[in-house]
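Entry 14. Structure prediction run on the chain below.
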Amino acid sequence: MDRVVCCYPSARPLLTEGLAHARRDFAFSYPQERWYVRAVTALQNAHRRLRDNPFRTYVHSVALMHTIAAEQGFALHRRRSTLTWVIEVWRRVG
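Output returned:
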């Protein structure tokens, strides 16, 4: 799920559904949970609102996303990040 999680207001249903379809590995990317990413996201959403564009982007809690993956039986396998994005691969346990 490349740059998908930030397009939905609620991470839980999206990740739960995606993880349910993963047999062994589940990879996804999301924006860093940092003040500067939140600031840029807020500015982008304000710009969209002014232009009557209903699309919004979201910066979700990393702890929540990790909890969701663990609840579905996955453990973090690999993580890479840039200043803006995080890419994680989770592997089914057992």
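Residues 5-92 form a domain with the Rossmann fold fold (CATH 3.40.50.150).
Filed with the rest of this week's runs.
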